[in-house]
Amino acid sequence: FRLFPLREHGMNWRARPLTCQEIQAFRKSKEVMDRFIRAYKLMLGFYGISLVNEETGELERAENWRERFENLNRFSHNNLRITRILKCLGEMGHEDYQVHLVKFFLTETLVEETLPNVKRSALDYFLFTVRSKEKRRELVHYAWQHFKPQSSFVWGPRDKLQKYR
């Protein structure tokens, strides 16, 4: 059993991908969804992040963020796990949680510059797990606004980013 199952194969070749029927059954089960949120909070804690609001998915740095961010910067395999968590959040109907987690990583990598070794994954992978096209556009625009140098930003067309409102 996986904590964050997906409809695609992952690194564990023995793990069977989820079916659409299984996803629907999970989403309808209060017990499964409660366990899912507990697992999400557990992983966030491991990464030095706290879920502030279960309704909205709002996040903040946890008290132990410095040591946990050091771990995130040192071990890039965490980026694969974060991508998996983000995809699973979408599968389980928590698109708002996706948006908050991606924005958290964009802020920490581009604005606060606390996670330099996560920046490429945040831009290349995390951003594009967000299911909502509108929210994804907002996040790409946010990334573009904070990317240095802006002229090297390749994750969206410059003319559209400049006009975006």
From TrEMBL:
<dbReference type="GO" id="GO:0016020">
    <property type="term" value="C:membrane"/>
</dbReference>
<dbReference type="Pfam" id="PF04664">
    <property type="entry name" value="OGFr_N"/>
</dbReference>
<dbReference type="InterPro" id="IPR039574">
    <property type="entry name" value="OGFr"/>
</dbReference>
<comment type="similarity">
    <text>Belongs to the opioid growth factor receptor family.</text>
</comment>
<dbReference type="InterPro" id="IPR006757">
    <property type="entry name" value="OGF_rcpt"/>
</dbReference>
<feature type="domain" description="Opioid growth factor receptor (OGFr) conserved">
    <location>
        <begin position="3"/>
        <end position="162"/>
    </location>
</feature>
<protein>
    <submittedName>
        <fullName>OGFR factor</fullName>
    </submittedName>
</protein>
<dbReference type="GO" id="GO:0140625">
    <property type="term" value="F:opioid growth factor receptor activity"/>
</dbReference>
